[in-house]
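User: Mind token order:
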Amino acid sequence: MPELKPILLVEDNPKDLELTLAALEQSQLANEVVVVRDGAEALDFLYRRGAHENRNTSDPAVVLLDLKLPKVDGLEVLEKVKSDPRLKHTPVVMLTSSREESDLVRSYELGVNAFVVKPVGFREFFDAIQDLGVFWAILNEPPPRRNGG
């Protein structure tokens, strides 16, 4: 049985964080959800630096990434991940309240796997998160890992 990879949730809004965690929990995914609250910490997790230097989990099954983050914004995190040969195949879903066309276009230019605008309604948001979790953690078939990236 393949190793269960964690879901990396990068979110600084406490309400969105609580709702996202509740939706993922209700999906009954067995994947651990790792929460970080800014882009710098997300990069530390992905590159095993700082507080995450000795983490014993594998790279994430998916990164659920907020666009507007403190320290390092979501677009910068996305750019680093997708330009790194070791991480570029890690699925990244931009999860944002931004409806700016420029954010959408830039995200896809940088290689985002999906761009989801957070629905305003509670039920819609909850359903969207459950669907995302199930798709990326269970249904999506990632490419095989090759030595050296």
User: Anything to note?
Assistant: DSSP finds five helices and five strands in the chain. The mean pLDDT is 87.
